[in-house]
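Retro notes, item 3 of 5
We never archived the inputs for the adenosine-5'-diphosphate complex last cycle. Fixing that now. Sequence and ligand:
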Amino acid sequence: MAKMEVKTSLLDNMIGVGDMVLLEPLNEETFINNLKKRFDHNEIYTYIGSVVISVNPYRSLPIYSPEKVEDYRNRNFYELSPHIFALSDEAYRSLRDQDKDQCILITGESGAGKTEASKLVMSYVAAVCGKGAEVNQVKEQLLQSNPVLEAFGNAKTVRNDNSSRFGKYMDIEFDFKGDPLGGVISNYLLEKSRVVKQPRGERNFHVFYQLLSGASEELLNKLKLERDFSRYNYLSLDSARVNGIDDAANFRTVRNAMQIVGFMDHEAESVLEVVAAVLKLGNIEFKPESRVNGLDESKIKDKNELKEICELTGIDQSVLERAFSFRTVEAKQEKVSTTLNVAQAYYARDALAKNLYSRLFSWLVNRINESIKAQTKVRKKVMGVLDIYGFEIFEDNSFEQFIINYCNEKLQQIFIELTLKEEQEEYIREDIEWTHIEYFNNAIICDLIENNTNGILAMLDEECLRPGTVTDETFLEKLNQVCATHQHFESRMSKCSRFLNDTSLPHSCFRIQHYAGKVLYQVEGFVDKNNDLLYRDLSQAMWKASHTLIKSLFPEGNPAKINLKRPPTAGSQFKASVATLMKNLQTKNPNYIRCIKPNDKKAAHIFNESLVCHQIRYLGLLENVRVRRAGYAFRQAYEPCLERYKMLCKQTWPHWKGPARSGVEVLFNELEIPVEEYSFGRSKIFIRNPRTLFKLEDLRKQRLEDLATLIQKIYRGWKCRTHFLLMKKSQIVIAAWFRRFAQQKKYQQTKSSALVIQSYIRGWKARKILRELKHQKRCKEAATTIAAYWHGTQARRELKRLKEEARRKHAVAVIWAYWLGLKVRREYRKFFRANAGKKIYEFTLQRIIQKYFLEMKNKMPSLSPIDKNWPSRPYLFLDSTHKELKRIFHLWRCKKYRDQFTDQQKLIYEEKLEASELFKDKKALYPSSVGQPFQGAYLEINKNPKYKKLKDAIEEKIIIAEVVNKINRANGKSTSRIFLLTNNNLLLADQKSGQIKSEVPLVDVTKVSMSSQNDGFFAVHLKEGSEAASKGDFLFSSDHLIEMATKLYRTTLSQTKQKLSIEISDEFLVQFRQDKVCVKFIQGNQKNGSVPTCKRKNNRLLEVAVP
Ligand SMILES: Nc1ncnc2c1ncn2[C@@H]1O[C@H](COP(=O)(O)OP(=O)(O)O)[C@@H](O)[C@H]1O
Ligand SMILES: [Mg+2]
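Structure as it came back at the time:
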């Protein structure tokens, strides 16, 4: 269905301004007010040019439905109100159609909605990209990787119930059509300290709680766990249950997601075993034990937990126990073992737990990557989605915050670089003069942190590697020396007098002025966390585990691969991975989503202005707007611009014929917009000030109202006029009709009056004539009547006289006749009674018989002997006569019929008779043979030159020459043979060559056997011991079995004077060489159609299947 093209714009029904670039005047207050106004109206998205600001609504809004997806699909960015879908669509289309790799950078504080935004982007792309079984599986795997990573990498914090505790960058790969092929996930710095300790009001990673609440009893037993959270030291209890999070249900979701992503059952189980081992590690406790040398040594309090861990992981208990009590240091081929005190033992335990968990997490990411990686080698287009922890300022900021803020610093930098670059590129593309823009470049802060020679990270590494006592304090001292003069570094210990009196800066801290604000870092723990030390004894113990997953997590524990070099520090690892990430992002077209948290309470409808203000400041959003509108605030392609404002000028309204650009020129001239306010690019008009745009908008609104009035006016006029015309027309019609009606009525009246008068006159005239005529007629009638009466009287008198005379004559005749009758009866009475009855009877009988014969003559049936018709008998007493007559007639007509036969025909009928005697009612095949004439020589040997030799070899008369199937005695297969019967012999010859194969004198034929069924099989039994019988009896099948058997019978009888025995049975024996074989006829299957099949079953049995 073609969608109706409705031209809309971001500018329609705007709440506040949809694009901050249009904000007038632009300052922090108006910026926040605009955000708030939009937020209050459920508009959580606002643009700054192509950047999307997203304010977390903390409640579900109905703006992510499939219908919304359809709305935003294939629409221009500024066509609809701001939405994350518009950005996703723009990115996806530019990836698919313009072949530009994309990255979507999502930044913001913890809880600002980054992860949700990344999921929305992914689900939008999944919804609009290709479909199909394979593509859907890829999509499903990509989407399902989220729950798995969230279970292991997310936790409840005070800021967010589902806070990602790791940075995530995911490349989704597409083919040239835009169908997803797979993906690659990179993870950054999991906050592993959470495994062993959580701040107040926060939880450990979700997976621990999910496992304990969601696992079945059976699984818990297997993992040696108990359901009760309070049993585990590593789980904080005060907020173990979180409102709105169903851990048990999530556990099932995660298991299911693992399955979809492609984890094998045993892999998923191994993962849970590691999780269980980490939980149980926390329960190992140590107690001090004094030794002889006065040193304190730690001992494990209760070895039960240790034992279970060892059982779970397949580690030798003594090895692990030793690793918790000793530390071996290797230096210059020397091994020195020192005992651990209680504090050290706890440190070792926690380090192990943290390492185990964070390595498991990295393993999971790799494992997921293995599943979701693109299977093909074709060139891929890439869309990267970066969901990384935002800028963090806590009361106590430590190494982690330092690292995280460093990462954000870098992101801000490429944001500035790329936005400026994009802006500049657009100006060049559109051929507009570039004006220099002042902005704060945070490269200097990045340099403070990452500089290889005197950056803070480099200092920290140097300190960690330095021999001698290294503490956090020595590190701070070093910083104070090196960075003291840096503009963005503040420390009280530095000799720079600026901060000597700053009491807000404690001695054990340093402060960095980040682009987003000042952050005070506690130096405590920096060295330790950077070192990220795991005692070698522990990694070796882990490597010895029989649990394959755990073993693979600690490759450095392999004694064969001992590496005395220190592993890279956490700081330098992170720096390297951030550098790779930045390099990667720079090659892609960036799309920004900047998330803002409206309040600290995770509550809907609350907009805390100071909190938002802070975020706007450190995200540099105002700066972003300034950059964006430094030159020209608003730009629009010529066509939509002309389309939107063409009603403001007579020349362009309603249609502009020329190119859109000149239309816009005419329009702007007409409106007298100052020339410095706009500039013409190649494809877009650039408007310097939002004021101008709003003026245009106001004019448009005004003009639209005028236009509406005009349209209304014209419509009303048109409506009234058509109404008037209609009324006028109707009035004429009605008047015409009425006049006609009146005239008609008047005419009718006049006409009828005239008629009345006319008729009266005519009537009067007619009556006068009538009267005269009646008088004349009456005179005539009177005379006639008188004459008639007179004639009548005369006639009646004469009639009376004649009647009297006739009556008298009749009476005389009757009396005479009666008298004569009486006389005759008196004379003959004496003869009549004695023999009249008999005479009449005989006479009648004779008449009946005569009539019977005469009728029979006409009703005789035909002369055909098989005609069964005979007329019915008319009288019962003729019954015997009638039967006799029928018999005589039949005999007579049979005789007549026979008399016509020639000798040859007689012979044929004799044969048919013989066949009837032999087979009638015995063989089922018989009835079908009755109608077939017996021809004997079917094969005309004389005429076929092929058989000349055969013909010459036979001197006698041929009685039968026919092709039969000879059944092979060994396997039941059949071959064609010529079957010849002469007066004395039976011959078989090859059908092709005519060569005689066997010759049997008729005296040697003893018997013919066949079944009672409807088949043509028959056996010819030979006399035992005769020469012909050496190979055994013959088994044939023929279409003319009845004829052949009959002829064989008759010939044998006439030649040998012996009756050939014919056996009809469904089971008979034949002699094949030495074997007596039973030929058995069975009701066969219908598989072979109506052809009987023959099969040699074994030595003793040959089966014929008759259908
Ligand atoms: N677009 C949104 N619509 C509704 N709720 C949201 C949206 N974005 C975020 N939230 C809510 O805010 C919470 C925190 O979001 P999240 O994306 O996890 O934050 P971040 O990843 O930035 O720390 C989510 O759990 C959800 O309840
Ligand atoms: Mg998150």
